[in-house]
Amino acid sequence: MDSSDSFLMKHRWLIGVLVALAVVATLAFVFKAEALKKDKLLVATTFTVIADLAANVAGDAADVVSITRPGAEIHNYQPTPRDLLRVRDADIVLWNGLGLERWFEKFISRVEGATDVLVSEGVVPIPIRDGPYTSQPNPHAWMSPADVIIYVRNIEAALSVADPANASVYKANAAAYIEQIAAVSQRITERLSVLPAEKRWLASTEGAFSYLARHFELKELYLWPINADALGTPQQVKKMIDAVRDNNVPVVFSESTLSDKPAKQVARDAGAAYGGVLYVDSLSEADGPVPTYLDLLRVTTNTVLKGLTGG
Ligand SMILES: [Zn+2]
C-alpha cells in the first residue's frame, strides 16, 4: 500500500461526504432553476396591442401572451376552449375595458385564479357620438400617445404588485418605453404639422381614431362608430359620402381587421381617393407591417399623411 492509497483509505468518509454534498448541490440547483422557470410571472392580455405594451414593461422578467391573435377582430371575438387553457396558468390578465372586449367578462369568470386588471383606468373617455352605443365610452384610447402612457403606468403597477421582486425592473423598463413613445409622438406631430387646417381629416370605416385625432388635432369622419355596431348599412354609406363631399375630404381609409369594400365605395362615390388600410385594433405578425404598437402608430399616421398630401 503506498502513501496515496493510505490517504484515500483514511479519508474515504470525507470523499463520500464531498460526493454527497456535490449531488445535493446539483439537485438543489436543478430544482431551483425549475422553480424559477415556473415562478416567472405569466401575463395574459386580451389583444396584441396590450400584449406588446406589457412585453415592453416585462422585458425578460415576465412572459406575456395575447388571447386574440395578430390581425384578429377584437370587439366581437368568440373565445375558444383553447383560449381558456392558454390563460388558465396566467397570474394576471390585462384588458382594455371601456366596452372594447364585449366577450371578456363572461370569459374571465370561467378562469379561476387569474386577477384581471383594467389598463385604461384613469383615461378620460371620449363618448361615442352615434349608433346604439351613443354616449358610451369609445374604447380606442391606446391610439393617443398621451393615453397609452397611462396604460403603460397601469401595466407597470399591475406587474409590480403581482411580482414585487422585479418591481425595479418593471419601473426601469416602463420609464424607457415611455420615453420611446414620447419621441415617436413628437416626430409624428412634427410631420403632421405640414398639413393645413382644411386638410386635417381622418376619414375611415370605424370611429376608432377619436383619441388619435384628439391628440394630433385632426378631424374625424367614420362610416360606423364602432366595430360592435352595424357595419356599412346603406344609410351609413350615404351619410359618409355626403360628409366627405361637403368637407372636401381628400382621402378615405379602411381599418385592417375588416373589409375595405365600404371605404372604397365611399371614396369612389364621393370623388375622393382611397388611402389604404389603417391599423388600430390589432398588430400584425412579426413579419407584417405593424408587429409592435410603435409601428402601428408610425405606419397608421404615415398612411394618413401620405393620403392627405397626395404623396
Ligand atoms: Zn375597434
Give an overview in words.
With 311 residues, the chain is α/β, with parallel strands linked by helices. The chain has two domains: 40-188, 3-Layer(aba) Sandwich (Rossmann fold); 192-309, Nitrogenase molybdenum iron protein domain (Rossmann fold), CATH 3.40.50.1980. Helix content is 49%, strand content 13%. It is built from eleven helices and eight strands. The chain has helices at 3-10, 12-39, 48-58, 81-88, 104-108, 145-162, 167-192, 210-216, 234-246, 261-270, 293-309, and strands at 41-45, 62-66, 92-95, 115-118, 201-206, 219-224, 251-255, 273-278. The protein has a four-stranded parallel beta sheet, covered by helices on one side. Strands 5-6 form a two-stranded parallel ribbon. α8 (210-216) links the parallel β5 and β6. α7 (167-192) runs parallel beside α11 and α9 crosses α10. It is elongated, with a radius of gyration of 26 Å. The mean pLDDT is 90. Zinc ion binds next to loops.
